[in-house]
Amino acid sequence: MRVFASIGSSTAPLLLCLSALPAIAEDAPCTCPDMLDLASRNNQVKAAMQTYQEQLAAWTAAGGASGADEEGRTAFQLDIVEPSMVAAKDSRANTASAETKGDCRTTINAPTACLRVLMEQHEQVHRDACVVHTNEHVSVSDAIIPRWQTLADYAREEIEAYKSERTYIEAALSNLEHDCRYTLEFDSVIAGATESTRSDAKTKVDLEIHFPRGYTPTGFNGSHPLNYNTRDVGPPKLVGDPMLVKLAKPCYAASQGNGNVSFEVKNAWLMRERTPPYGPLLELPILVGDTQETRYLKGPRGCPRESEPRSFWTEQFKLGKRIEPAGSMDIRASAPSASDLAVIVDGWNFTGEDAAKTIETACLGFGGAETFSGFPGMPVGNAICEKTVLKFKKKR
Ligand SMILES: [Zn+2]
Predict the structure, then answer these.
(1) pLDDT tens, 127-147?
(2) What's the gap in Å between 126 CA and the centre of ligand 1?
């Protein structure tokens, strides 16, 4: 918990509080959009460390590890360690690479400032080991003595490097936990393409993300009921000869109903583009319950009188959208079930740290117009039947 004590009586307690914060400065290189890269890298680092530990145990059981010449190290790295790290990576994450050569110089290839700092933590361990080794073998005859006698020596140095990286990642993630709190404002209007209905649905959801140690993080989560109001907007307006229009009172359909229904944001992630300029991206899965409306056939005498229950707003909202399981990262604890099927909202526009998205859907997109051709004068074609505005705002 970040606590800012009242400054009133004494400044001493405040100073104590500040010194207890993780040692990351104001201009921390890892910000909210780096969370997916960090979480993915954390999983990769854990996988690598586990693989090295398993290998060390296997070598101990076998009575020793083989030599650590460059060929042996490369094969070990490519055949044993890499596959476990590849399997642990989230497909949406950016990655970086780095190397510290025998002359103790480090080269880093990182797309973002955040990943560069992670590489720096890791390589610092190799660089320190390299410098110590070089200083111990200053004479010309000693200079070619390798730093690692066996692959076990090499693996132990790697474990230390990954440990250092992981310490930084976990401090950065717990900073983001405090810093990256958002509110989603959701405001949707859906009109019937083939019926005289207008539905308004609104909610406001607080979103938080947690990075519990030892668990796979699940992204942003939050829920708050969606309030909906679906109503009959009256008989359709007919076009044509005014006299005929006056006489013709059309039969029509309309859905009605109002109330609250569950609305949940599950496993939403901020992330970065995987090409320059590596700008922020948001993938926000929404799980929404079925609104409960009744669809009536209406009109003057002679019109059919029927009614049926339906879920007007939810049904229309889901049409034509990206529907996928709201899974946690790429490594899923269990197979996603049908109840995890969410509308995934992506393609947000960022302004600073906030993002917004407006979904406008043409009435034609709802389809089925031909089925209801018996109701003349209804809007078809290019009219907009859905306008949903989403605002993802950082709490300050
Ligand atoms: Zn390394």
Answers:
(1) 999 999 998 887 766 657 788
(2) 7
